[in-house]
């Protein structure tokens, strides 16, 4: 089979499309023929050696996968060959086939495409728990969502509206992205490449600031976002897409009882009582049409390096998908 692998950290050019042995499923595993792979900023952080946890080399990236079961282990009883499934995994999704424990599988209904199936697990669960579990969003509160046309951001805008947020301020880097965020439910839009975007946010909130901010850019954007927080405001950080780690003085949070909170989805996945209920909720929103998943484009697996360039160049809207 073919896989995308890197043997050293670096730019997109370190990704190589190579031959590898097809995995053999264990007794409690299934072999999935991959039909769609989700591309995430976490994949680029892995490639650069900048991820939250160490990335061993050589490494096959990818944490979201959807496909058809090609083979089952002898102890597997819940799943059969030909069934459509998706999964959120630690690594290895950039491949033609993956072997997965049956407990990791999520059945994919016939009316849900494989592209949609890989757009929901990581981004959907992240947006849900950033807003609720970590961000403690309450009815009527003001939310600031950066990169609001991206995978997590686009879902977060819609969920914030469903959860009863008052003002939903969406930021992005182009008018096209901002209009997309507005179409999803943002009440206000701000271009964060503008020099005075902090002043715009303050103006929208009548000088008070925002109750909750979702931040995954890092660097200067993080520090400016801190200035946007209201008293008792919470900033949830869930990435550093710019590659820059922010520096700040914790003491500055004291004057207005503000909080900076970290979010890492694998910690949520270790608590079944948290993610199972929320995932069912997300599927319900999708089935009812209240949650729209935006697919920014599907590309051949062999083009993974170019897709990474597009993602990091912030030229895209919605979810990027690779297809073997």
Helix content: 25-40%
Number of strands: 15
Number of continuous helical runs:
10
* Rg: 20 Å
Shape descriptor reads globular
The end-to-end distance, rounded to whole angstroms, is 10 Å
Order of helices and strands: EEEHEEEEHHEHEHEHEHEEHHEHE
Helix/strand structural class:
alpha/beta
Overall mean pLDDT score? 93
* Biggest β-sheet description: 7 strands, mixed
β content, as a range?
25-35%
Which runs of at least 5 residues are low in confidence (pLDDT < 50)? none
Protein described:
This protein has about 325 residues and is α/β, with parallel strands linked by helices. The strands form 3 sheets. Strands 3, 4, 5, 6, 7, 14 and 15 form a 7-stranded mixed beta sheet that branches. Strands 10-9-8-11-12-13 form a 6-stranded parallel beta sheet, with helices on both faces. The chain has a two-stranded antiparallel sheet with strand order 1-2. Helix 4 links the parallel strand 8 and strand 9. The chain is globular, with a radius of gyration of 20 Å. The model has no long low-confidence stretch (mean pLDDT about 95).
Question: What's the short story on this structure?
Answer:
By secondary structure, this protein is an alpha/beta fold. It has ten helices and 15 strands. Strand 8, helix 4 and strand 9 form a beta-alpha-beta unit.
Structural key phrases:
324 residues; alpha/beta; seven-stranded mixed β-sheet; six-stranded parallel β-sheet; 30% helix; globular
What is the topological layout?
Layout: E1 2-5, E2 16-19, E3 29-39, H1 41-48, E4 64-72, E5 84-88, E6 97-101, E7 105-107, H2 114-119, H3 121-134, E8 143-145, H4 151-162, E9 168-172, H5 175-184, E10 188-191, H6 197-204, E11 210-215, H7 219-226, E12 229-237, E13 259-262, H8 265-269, H9 272-288, E14 295-300, H10 304-312, E15 319-323
Parallel strand pairs: 8-9, 8-11, 9-10, 11-12, 12-13, 14-15
Antiparallel strand pairs: 1-2, 3-4, 3-6, 3-15, 4-5, 5-7
């Amino acid at each position: 089979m073919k896989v995308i692998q890197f043997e050293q950290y670096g730019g997109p050019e370190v990704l190589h499309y190579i031959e590898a042995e097809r995995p053999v499923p264990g007794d409690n595993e299934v072999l999935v023929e991959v039909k769609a792979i989700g591309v995430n900023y976490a994949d680029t952080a892995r490639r650069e050696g900048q991820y939250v946890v160490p990335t061993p080399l050589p490494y096959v990236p990818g944490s979201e996968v959807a496909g058809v079961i090609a083979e089952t282990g002898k102890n597997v009883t819940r799943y059969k060959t030909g069934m459509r499934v998706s999964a959120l995994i630690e690594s290895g999704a950039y491949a033609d086939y993956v072997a997965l424990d049956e407990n990791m599988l999520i059945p994919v209904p016939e009316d849900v495409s494989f592209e949609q199936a890989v757009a929901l697990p990581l981004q959907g669960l992240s947006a849900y728990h950033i807003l609720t579990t970590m961000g403690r969003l309450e009815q009527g509160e003001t939310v600031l969502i950066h990169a609001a046309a991206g995978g997590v951001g686009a879902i977060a805008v819609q969920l914030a509206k469903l959860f009863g947020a008052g003002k939903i301020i969406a930021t992005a880097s182009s008018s096209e992205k901002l209009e997309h965020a507005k179409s999803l439910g943002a009440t206000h839009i701000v271009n964060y490449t503008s020099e005075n975007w902090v002043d715009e946010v303050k103006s929208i909130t009548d000088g008070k600031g925002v109750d909750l901010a979702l931040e995954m850019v890092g660097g200067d954007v993080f520090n400016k976002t801190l200035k946007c927080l209201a008293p008792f405001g919470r900033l949830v950080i869930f990435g550093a897409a710019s590659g820059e780690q922010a520096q700040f003085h914790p003491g500055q949070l004291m004057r207005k009882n503000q909080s900076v909170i970290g979010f890492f989805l694998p910690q949520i996945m270790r608590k079944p009582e948290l993610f199972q209920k929320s995932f069912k909720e997300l599927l319900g929103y999708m089935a009812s049409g209240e949650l729209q998943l935006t697919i920014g484009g599907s590309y051949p697996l062999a083009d993974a390096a170019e897709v990474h360039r597009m993602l990091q160049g912030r030229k895209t809207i919605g979810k990027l998908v690779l297809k073997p």
